[in-house]
Amino acid sequence: MFITFEGIEGCGKSTQARLLFGALRKRGIEALLTREPGGTRIGEKIRNILMSTANSELCAAAEFLLLEADRAQHVAQLIGPAVEKGIVVICDRFCDATVAYQGYGRKVDLDFIEKLNSYASNGLRPDKTFLLDCPVEVGLSRAIERNERIQKQAEGRFEAEDLEFHQRVRKGYLALAQKEPDRFVVLDATKVREKLAVEVWQVVESLLG
Questions:
Q1: pTM of the entire structure?
Q2: In the chain, where are the structural domains located?
Q3: CATH dotted code for 2-208
Q4: Which of 63, 75, 86, 161 has an alpha carbon 20 to 30 Å from 105's alpha carbon atom?
Q5: How confident is the model over 104-135, as pLDDT tens digits?
Q6: CA 62 to CA 43: how far, in whole Å?
């Protein structure tokens, strides 16, 4: 099973991905927790380029292609083999993030993104995607506070984008969820994390049978 978590900056998806991973392991279910960009040694190097505020001159095309390169390595080296072995894979962001951020946010051609997403992922698609949705102002406030708390302001290149960019990203995510209601589960990310974790587990438990 392949499960992904998506959402704007500060929505809490990384926290929920970790909580689900812990819940699965606690019940003796073999699981893998990973993220995009990143997840592999090469992917983490690409992540450093993409997230660094020192790389503000990175153009939309270069950003998009770096993400696809990261995904190709991620699927080939980690996600694909794990799924084939029957391991439950939980990924913090995947192809939907590229549609939302680079397609709706950066205005890269959506058809082109779909083609490269399919190529880089080798056609792999999530069985279930949790979209944690909240107002942009709420998410950004959380994300900036988090970066300050853990002293990672230098990795806030996306958080530094203007409000309109993040509004477009959120709109993109909601459009994707509307397009694929069977795959997406949209959750209210303003709820406390424990309540969200229960809602996530109820869905996953039903999938596991």
A1: 0.94
A2: 2-208
A3: 3.40.50.300
A4: 75
A5: 999 999 999 999 999 999 999 999 999 999 99
A6: 15
